[in-house]
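Escalation from tier 1.

The customer reports that the assembly of two entities below gives different structure tokens on two consecutive runs. Tier 1 could not reproduce it. I'm attaching the input and our single run for tier 2 to review.
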Amino acid sequence: MKITLNWLKQYVDFGWTPDELSERLTMLGIEVEGVQKIGGEFDGIVVAQVITRHRHPNADKLSLCRVNDGRGERQIVCGADNFKDGDKVPLILPGSMLPARPGQPSFPIKVGKIRGVESHGMMCSPQELGLPDQVDGLLILSEDARVGQPFAEYLGRAGSDVVYDLEITPNRPDLNSVIGIAREIAAITGNPLKLPQVEIAEGNNPADRLVAVRIEDVELCPRYTARVITGVKVAPSPDWLRTTLEKVGIRSINNVVDVTNYVMLEVGQPLHAFDYRLLTGGATGVAAIVVRRALENEVFVTLDGQERKLSGEILLIADESKPVALAGVMGGQNTEIQPDTTNVLIESAYFKPQNIRATSKRLDLRTESSYRFERGGDPSICEWASRRAAQLILQTAGGELAVGVVDAYPTSVQPKQITVRPQKVNELLGLELSGAEIENYLSQLELFPGIRKPCPVGVERSALEPLTIRVPTYRVDLKREVDLIEEVARLYGVDKIPATPPRGAIGSNEYDAVYDELAAARTILSGLGLCEAQGQTLISDSVAKLAGPDGLVPLANPLSSDMNVLRPSLLPGLLDALRHNLSYKTVDVALFEIGSVFSQTEKGNTEHRRLAIAMTGLRQAAHWAGDSRDAKVDIFDLKGLIEEFFDQYGVRGISFSRRSEMTTLFVESASIHLGKLRIGEIGQLLPTLARQYDLRDAVYLAELDLDTVLLRRNPGKSFKVLPSFPAIRRDVAMTVPEAATHESVMQVVRQAKPANLEAAHLFDIFRGKHVAGGQKSMAYAFTYRHGERSLTDAEVNAAHDKLVEAFRQKLQAVIRES
Amino acid sequence: MSFLEQIEPLKQAALVELQAAGDLTALEQARVTYLGTNGKFTGLMRQLASLPKDEKPAAGKAINLAKTELENALSGRRSELELRASVPTEPTDFTLPGRRRVLGKLHPLTQVTDDIVRSFRKIGFVVANGPEVEDDYHCFDALNTPADHPARDTQDTFYLAGCGEGKAPLLLRTHTSSVQIRVMQQQPPPVRIIVPGRVYRRDNADATHNPTFHQVEGLYVDRKVTVGDLKGTVEFVFKELMGPETRIRFRPHYFSYTEPSFEIDFSSALTRRMGKEWLEIAGCGMVHPQVFENVGYDPELWTGWAFGFGIERIAMIRYGINDIRLFYQNDLRFLKQF
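Tier 1 run:
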């Protein structure tokens, strides 16, 4: 909401500069979003008259003048030559600014010596003031200019003002008005709030002979007042009204409509003016105002020319034959004020906030009026606001006010009473205020105690006795004790409440340990050379389907089709990250992300933590030498990384099993198992997809179900005695059919259980020369060791030969003699 | 010449030749010449057998001494030559770039979150979490923001599709405050938690908005908790996060789930670098009694405070990052800076 400094000053006195006001409002909880100074470029410049002009004692081209500025005489040194005694000229007083020219800062005028003589101000040329007149020398003003008059006023320009753009929190509808803000300032300065006097002369016609009001739904409209003014002359608004509205961003329409807007901004009560003549009955007898719900599919054209289809939840202002306004939101075209309107009906009502909000939302129509009503107004102010509007209409458009007001107000609202305990105030704020101090702070906000129990003679009233406070109806935010405590805090000054060092209970929550487990995973992964990514949770359904077509969680109100489902996998996000990096020529990328993924199952929505990894480009940071400097990452880089991660993370029993089919994502992939549980997948991205993402090198991806991994994690460590007896190594190189896997070799080893075998290590796989097609050569090193003694060659050979025999039998292995 | 007389000249000749060997090959040749199977010195030793018995002990001793001397000279010379051979022919250019073992980096949001968590843990807070897909109750109603409340605008909230009819509508949480409710429903007071996590607002992405962002929420419920405690804790945490010279200012504000409510501004070299004395950084307040009643805590016995702030905002201020979207592009040139 916008207000201006000058407007505000009409209702309360304060001596703050514009910046100080801004600071004070901020500290009261009224955030100042913008401050705009308008006009005022001639501030501190007055009309002055030259009394005498002499030559400067030390300079031929300068004059020494005595000048009357309207308050007294001052001495000015001047370099111009086009003036004489008695001329009236613009004078900048010391401390004011020479107006800025475009692109230059404004220049402050000070008392200073010119060639040894003091000069108390500066007389100006039109060029210096940025005025269009071209004069060689001072701007000579007309003879009838009043000495001492502000120069801006002489020019007929508006004086300076400051427009504040305030952010009003939704709990304080009473602050959506200039008087509301003034009331806050009155509270902290102690200066009185100056409300306009609205005693006005009424004519002869009683209002209730001109209009009748019938409220059909009292719940939605607890109060409706109507006043009638006859014989107005609709015309453009006077300057003060037009400029006041324009400064706060409201377009001036005509004097009658502008008054309704002015009063709304002034006191916060939205008003509406109808052309009385266009209301049924208005031309002849008694106009009828009916407050009713709209009929289903009733059609109505609002002031903005839009035809709107209504429903039964929408409240209408109607006459006996037609709707004339959307209650609290916008008037109708059929009864709007016309240039030739002569009789005006002023509506000032209170509508149920929830209903206005629903209507406004349903019709997607937000107005200054709906904004105020939906936040909750003050039913008590309706009549006053209507009177104020009538006063200003009479003042700006003439006419005669009908006697009295038609006020349909079946149940008047009563001020709430709230009890506040000083002890509770102190407990919550950490202060030690007495009841009297608390009462004092509250009374500054017009929050006065209601009836008090009489105090027995001779008994001192306890400083901590509860106070029962009567809450004005405009303070809809004050509902219970704690709300009053907040008011005490505001008036006391939140900044003055002393801070106390942290103390009290130690917290506990089961997630605390999980947070550390996730942090440990991140530390290991970054230690393995991966950078951490954070992807968008919202992605497009088309890429989400890459991770599987089922169980997507779509949004009901997405911003765009790029972000219309919750991610079912972290991989699409990582692919986006790869594309982004490659598009900026970063081609070697290794990323991981830990985050939540979402899916829909028959049981409902699920949310799981996952870990995903993506790698592409060079295996090692680029270097200038080395055999493998150009090596690109392959699937075993990623697999090894995962194996190392699990090892370091304390997870054992991981296995990989190849999937025979391609997937929507992978040209070749494997499931990752933890025991019998499938916990993820690893694979190479389909080259066709890689092309779509503009990825050039092969891309390897893996994704793991981190929640399951956390459950199976055993990071506990225990010491094993270091071996003290030597190991014996036996190597085997054998050719096996291609179908034999490393895992099948290891399975044979596990079944054969060679005595004292400590480790088996694959150290070469070879195809080609000397190896038949459909075969491959695999070379393993087997290490034998006994914990308590040295082994003999003979016993190792016996165990090892058995193992080799098992390879021959089970794998059709041909042992290569070396 | 007698046997003994032959030893010394041959040894001297051998020593000269060993010493003269310029490389390991020449040294090996010299060794073969004298000490090899058919070498001259080996030949002399063979003659020892044919000496008369009484000459043997003296001759044996002398030739063994000479042999030891030769072997020492040989190994000494070999060490010298090996050392010489091991020196690179060209001196190493130590200004050449090393072959790096590259560490990955934690995301700046992770680093800032960890710092926040570390500061809170120093003063007894533990980390809690909750689901990102929430219902109206935990995200709004229980937080004293009923359906017709102006602060609850569907414009800002993402709802999931297909949850309208009959079922409770599901949404993406708009703040981490929903976790306050879940934790208080689940455990009796006192409570002392912080909740870092993702939240969602229906804002188009620009330099200061992303539909996904991160918040951290703090909640402390105990007997006789005051606004003073809230201020003390906030000051502690922000000094930890933003440096010891950080100043904190509280302004009255409005949140439906706290009363009184405040906004927190901070001031430090960082804000002054941005041309501002005070910069808004967080919202907070004393937990509204209605919220306590909603979770079954007695507001007469328990008081508490909550506060929340955006993690991106902290990171942006701390590192001088000018566009929130950078956090979600995962550009390595960005990630590697932190």
